[in-house]
C-alpha cells in the first residue's frame, strides 16, 4: 500500500549525505557447535536462495543466522529543521523482515542514533530458529523514530511519534527464498545398522506438483563404518569428494526415477505448468542452470559430476 | 515425522472424492492414509468427541466447541516430532489433514459442501484456523489461554477477526497476543462502555483490529515507545476504550 507521509522522509540525497554503505550480508547456521556459512544463489536481481556446501542445511531442521554491517557518517544531517527528526529525538535503524508465507514479521535492531553521535560501522545479527520460516522473506533497512524529542518551533513539521518509519533504503532490500528450487535437498542422518552408507528416497505421486523439499531426501547412515568420510564434523576423515559423489549419484537416481515415466519426464523438460518448487520444477531448474546433458545416462552422469565438482570443490 | 501435504489441484480432487465417499457411506468410510495418520485421525476423533461432551449446557455452542477442540488440537500437533510453525504455515499440510485424515470431522462441524473450510479459502480451513487462533492468543500455557478464550466476550467473530485475517506482510504474533490479553481482561464496566459507544457486541474487537491494521501502515508496532505493551495501550486509547 502506498503511503503519503506528511512529514519529511529520507531521500536518496540524504542517504548520500550520510555516506550510507552496506557491507556483505552473510547467512550462516550452527551445526553441533560449528558455524557454517551459506552461499547465495541469485534467482532474480534481489532474490536468492541459500546453498550449503556441506549439503546439510535446510530450514526445517537448522537455524539460520543473518548478519551484516552498515556504515554511516554525518549523523547530525538527520536531525533538526532540515533533517527528519527533531534535535533531541532518537533515530533507530533496523532490518524489517516480513513473510506472508510464514505468517510472521519482525524487526532486527541495528543501532540507535542521537545528534552528536559519531559515524562508523554498525553490526547486526539475528538468529531464526529451525522450523520458523517458510517461503519468501523480504528484508528492508528502515530508519524510524526511536524516542520522541521536544520539537522547537521550526521542527514542528518533523515526525515525532516513536515507531514512525522515516525512510527505507531501497538499495538494501532483498528477498530470501527458502522454498524456491535448489535451496533444499534435505539430508537426514539416521542410524541404520547393516544398511548401506546412504540412500535416496523419491516419494512423490505427482512430480509436477509435489514439493521437491517434501518428497525427496537423502539418508546418511550414521551406523555405517565409513560414515566418518561424510560426517562433516569429523575433520580428520571428512572427504567432500565423497559427498559430491553421493550428491551426483543421488541426483542421477532422482532423474532416472522421473524418467521412468516418459510423459512426466517430457513434461518436466518442456517446463510448462509446473508448480513452483515441485520435483519437476527443481529438476528442470537444475538441468538448465547447471547446463546438464541429458541425452544419455553416461552424458548425464558425467556432466552432473563435472558441474557439482566445479560448484562445491573448486 | 514427515508431514504430508496436498496441493490445491489435488485438494480439489480430494474434495470431490470425499463428497462421493460421504454420499455412499455417510461418513462411515474414510480415505486411505498410512499408519502415522491413522493415529492422528484417531486422536482428532477423540478430541472432537470430548469437545462435544464439554459443550453440554454451553451458551455459545459453536465457539466454545471450537476453543475446546482447538486447544486439544494445538497441544497434540505441537507434541508431534517435527511439527513447528513452518509446518503450521503450510496451507497444503492443512488441506491434507482436512481432506484425507479427518474430513468426517470437518463435515460434522460444517457440512460436506463447505469447501472453504476444507481447502478452498486457505484462511478458513477449519483445523488451520483453530491452530492459529490458539497460537495468536497464546498466554504462556494451555490453561491460561483456554481460560482467556472462554471469556464471554469472545465468539466466532473474534476467530474471524484474529485468525482469518493474516496480514499481507505477515502477522505481529506478540502484538496479537497482547491485544487478546488486554481485551480479554477489560472489566465488565469498561467493556460495556466501549460496546455502547461503538454499537454492538462484536464491533469493539473488530474496531481494535482495524485500527491495528491502519496504524501499522505508518508506524512499526514493534518499535513503539514502551514496546508491545505501549503499542497496545495506545491502540485502546485511539479506540477510546478505557483501561
Structural description of this entry:
The complex is a heterodimer of chains A (314) and B (243). Chain A is built from six helices and 13 strands. Chain A is an alpha+beta fold and 314 residues long. In chain A, the strands form two sheets. In chain A, strands 1, 2, 3, 4, 5, 6, 7, 8, 9 and 10 form a ten-stranded mixed β-sheet that branches. In chain A, strands 11-13-12 form a three-stranded mixed β-sheet. Chain A is elongated, with a radius of gyration of 24 Å. Chain A starts with 11 loop residues before the first helix and ends with a helix. The model of chain A has no long low-confidence stretch (mean pLDDT 91). With 243 residues, chain B is mostly helical. Chain B has two domains: 1-142, no CATH class; 167-243, no CATH class. Helices cover 67% and strands 0% of the residues of chain B. Chain B is built from 14 helices and no strands. In chain B, helix 2 (35-54) runs antiparallel to helix 3, helix 3 (61-79) crosses helix 8 and helix 11 crosses helix 14. Chain B is globular. Chains A and B meet through strand 6, strand 7 and strand 9 of A and helix 4 of B.
Task: Sum up the structure in keywords.
heterodimer, A: 314 residues, alpha+beta, Coagulation Factor XIII, Chain A, domain 1, 2 domains, three-stranded mixed sheet, 6 helices, elongated, B: 243 residues, mainly alpha, globular
Fraction of residues in H or I helices of chain B: 55-70%
Give the biggest beta sheet of chain B.
none
Number of strands of chain A: 13
Q: What is the overall shape of chain A? A: elongated
Rg of chain A over CA atoms, rounded to whole Å, is 24 Å
Q: What portion of residues of chain A belong to β-strands?
A: 25-35%
